[in-house]
């Protein structure tokens, strides 16, 4: 049986995927996986070692289950400060490389306080990578390649997302994002 808090964390994350990622079309490939129910969620402990061990377990889980397209590793306790999270992300990418998973998986990063290099914290564009909790997304490299090959203009997705967020404005993006953490 799933811990009630974990169920709530996952529910908030699913709402974020539906309302923000799919709703704003930040990832044009996400809706298909939502409909297929091929997204999995794991909760990792608050220490770097615990998160990295959970990441290794996520690689193993994906290796053993081709039905899982992507996995979100939520880190709700710890790494609330964005600079600390970036250090965790560096360590996670190193674990991916040293574990022999480079070319098999890649990581996407999301954090409640995400700020793109060179942007202001109040830039609405940051909401393209802001999630309810610090998290790492494990993507199958083969699937990413297939999607990029099949979808014209993938290199323009980040620019389009930034333009969308800025057009909608800070207040809109904040309201949408905050709605993901409201009680369901």
Automatic annotation (TrEMBL):
Pfam families: DUF1415. It comes from the Bacteria. This is DUF1415 domain-containing protein.
